[in-house]
Amino acid sequence: MPIGDMLLRSVDDSQINTVFPNTFEEYKKWDKEKDELPPEEVYKALFQELAYGDKIQVGRALTRMNYSKSGWKSLIKKTSRAIKKVVKKEEFPDSYKEFLIETNEKWADPTYWYAMGQMINNQTSIYYWNAIDRTFDQELNVVQQDEDRRVYVQTWLKTLKVSIYVTVFCLILGFPVAHLLANLPLRYSNLLMIFVLLPFWTSLLVRTTAWIVMLQQKGVINGVLVWLGILNDDGRIAMVYNETGTLIAMTQILLPFMILPLYSVMRVIPKSHMRAAQNLGAKPAMAFWRVYLPQTIPGMSAGGLLVFVLAIGYFITPELVGGKDGKLIGSWIAYHLKTTLNWGLTAALGAILLGFMLIFYWLYNKIVGIDNIKLG
Amino acid sequence: MALPTYATPIQRTYYYAYLFFCGVVFFFLIAPLIAIVPISFSVSPFMVFTEGMLAWPPDPEAWSLRWYRNMIGDCSAEVVSSTVPCSTKWMKGTVNSFYIGIIATFIATVLGTMAALGLSRPHMPYKALIMSILISPMIVPLIITAAGMFFFYARINLVYTFTGVILAHVALATPFVVITVTATLVGFDMNMVKAAQSLGAKPMRTFFKVIMPLILPGIISGALFAFITSFDEVVIVMFMASIDQLTIPKQMWAGIRQEISPVILCMATCLVILSIVLLTTVELLRRRAERLRGIKAR
Prior knowledge:
The complex is a heterodimer. Chain A is mainly alpha-helical. Chain A has helices spanning 2-11, 14-19, 21-27, 40-52, 55-68, 72-89, 96-103, 110-117, 126-131, 152-183, 186-201, 204-215, 220-227, 243-267, 272-279, 284-312, 316-321, 329-340, 343-367, and strands at 134-136, 142-144.
């Protein structure tokens, strides 16, 4: 239910339509081919709706207008003030068009009016286009966003890159460990399992904090390296507040999610298979590659998808450890939700992420089945 | 999994390299959690190992309970420092965390157990669909769930209230209960329910006298999972909670972003200890359940 609501938000554009209904009605009659500027009626409707509109509602609409073209907010605010004066004195102008252009010459700038055209419908796809760095031009065609406002495509790619790296690292680190745990006698493997389960049970924030302590300039790792004489005191490596830090911390945090599915798959592979293969003349490497590895594929794909999907939506760790260039898409969602209050864009970013997720879960379900998720 | 006596030297090398690699990974998993413990007892207001702490013999001057006293709201002169103000926020957060966590756990456990019981009936219609909806909060990234819930709760005026935070946590925690209880029910003999009912027990009595005692380990470990989920949860709290609903994770988040101080590590140490306790409980329960069901302990 909340997710459905979010999907609605991502295309909803009705708020501004309740504020400027008449203006938009008149706007639709404007023939852009014939006249450079909209006709008098549009100006008149706008004047009246600004003069008598509910202040809070207008304010909200302004925020929306600023998304389509920056500058709207200050323009309307200035104009509103001028209009209020006129209304107070009850000296209504003969031509609203001339009056508005007189108060602010931006009203004679057709680009503002074109931008208004984007908001006329009750539904919009603008947020989705914004989420991949596209915007509308005056004819409502989709074009690239200005150079300095392009951030999302880059962030999407970075999120994808980090997730893939983390998944690969987890696989490389997790595979031998799961193999060891699955093949040791129970007494030992239960003990060693604590090493995997304890981080799994510990708060995410605790682990993130711990990594900051470990990786910072005066942190434990740098300290040990200096003490060992590998680094000199000035050559401390910057490992935190950048992408390296994000990768290291995320790998450690998500590693249990790789080890546990792998372990449960490896546990049930009979040891006799390897012996049989070697009996038949295969070298150990060959036996491993041809006999053992194929049997672990369900575990690898389960763990891999789990880690990948968790990584792609990660937010806390990159935000804290990632510094300013380590931001992933989750950080932007949080930023728009909390700070800029651009909820349409938040919802669109979320919906795209959700779409990704559903594709991966569909795959996951095909490969291992969703019921096979195991805890601990 | 020891080496056979006929292993060649190359095989031996590989084997030891493999053991070494596993050791490194285990170290990688556990080291950060261990490292923070001693630093939390440091005198220094920075999160580092000071020289005094590394000195041998140990220098008692370098160690103190200063930050723990700060954490519990002790504001005496030897506790506060210029960079670390003293406040009661940590204690307030602890109280709130337990309050929200316990209520949310209770609701989630009741709902989750009922759902699991229903879902494990053989003739339940749309089983797969209901299951996937139920466990969706576990699968969808938290940030999306949080955004969706925020929008939805904003419409019905539940943001910035305890009710809102608790309900959100219930939604997150219920799947864990459903999964653990369903797993326990796999080995449950449904004939016992029939037996109880044929002897005249009403459904409620059957549940409390027959079903519940048998699936109790599953319910308890589900409840513990639910509790830790709510207790650790930060994303939803960040969006949906005002300063009145300050919890430990929220305070830690604020602490890491603004006033990085060893007080965070004190709290982190406490949380590590808490998770050790919970982990042990769950592990013991799991073994007991397997013994009861006659499955040989793995």
